[in-house]
Design a protein that fits this description.
The protein has about 325 residues and is of the alpha/beta class. It has five helices and 17 strands. It has helices at about 20-30, 75-90, 155-165, 215-225, 295-300, and strands spanning about 5-15, 35-40, 40-45, 55-60, 65-75, 100, 105-110, 120-125, 140-150, 165-175, 180-185, 195, 200-210, 230-235, 245-250, 255-260, 270-275. The strands form two sheets. A nine-stranded mixed sheet has the order 14-15-16-13-9-12-11-10-17. The radius of gyration is 18 Å and the shape is globular.
Length: about 325
Amino acid sequence: MAATDLLTHLRHVDLAVPDFGRERDFMINYWGLVPTTDDTGISFLAAQGSPEQYVVRLRKADEKRLDLIAFGTSSQTHVDTLAERLLAGGSTLITRPDALTTPGGGYGFRFFDIDGRTIEVSYGTATRRHRSIEERESIPVRLSHVVLNSADPDRTRDWYVQNLAFTLSDTLASPHFGSAMHFMRINPQHHSIAISKAPHTSIHHIAFEMRGIDEYMRGTGRLIQSGVTKLWGPGRHPVGDNTFSYFLDPHGNIMEYTTAMEELDEDTWHPSVHPIGPGAILDDWGTANPMDEFVREEMNNDRDKGVFIAPPV
């Protein structure tokens, strides 16, 4: 099944955090998102250039966790098809396909992936009024991609291919420990998710698309000058060809500014294995700080407390 047959795009990533006010302030006043709907202990945050109702949802909780990752699809029939496929394959559905009560409505359902993350698939969500991001405006246009940590990235890759019709774009691998990261797509963008090898299930990073390289660099500089902790970058990845600047949010999650990701020709592209290890080039520009043990440890993040536990909302 082709990558474009079922899922169409990444919609939003939902996080639970203990210090809700500090995280919300970071996302709005530093990262550049805008609040669209707020309730007690929950906030829906949009990117000004995106038609999505929101790209991040924050929820106040006792423990930090990933609540869910949401993807869009192109028809109500595809929502039902995915639910039937998941049930037939033995996956656990948290909810059955039905009307959604989150901002924008729509039709969808939730389920656990093989590592226990909550995933939502939906169709028919109302779009929000958005605008074109102006030249030199250093705020996110939209959500770009999310990278997930897994103790068994090959198994996780296979599950996403078999159950959600993702297509493998490329792989980073080491001769010493095998697969290090799989880049997966559901549209011509090189990756909407990637699966990274780590000691446990967690978020590796969440990436936001900027208008262009100038806006990406201005955003990177703005955050550095504001005192936000820069983890790695600025640089440009050889695989995917996208720029990267990684920062730590107040709870130790990694947030990325990126732009200019490669668009693939679905008919001609073949995945490659790219070696990593001593001497491997992870930054084409050569401008990023070294990928050292501190950076690697931060990318492992904390073990996710939400594995196989559905979020309460």
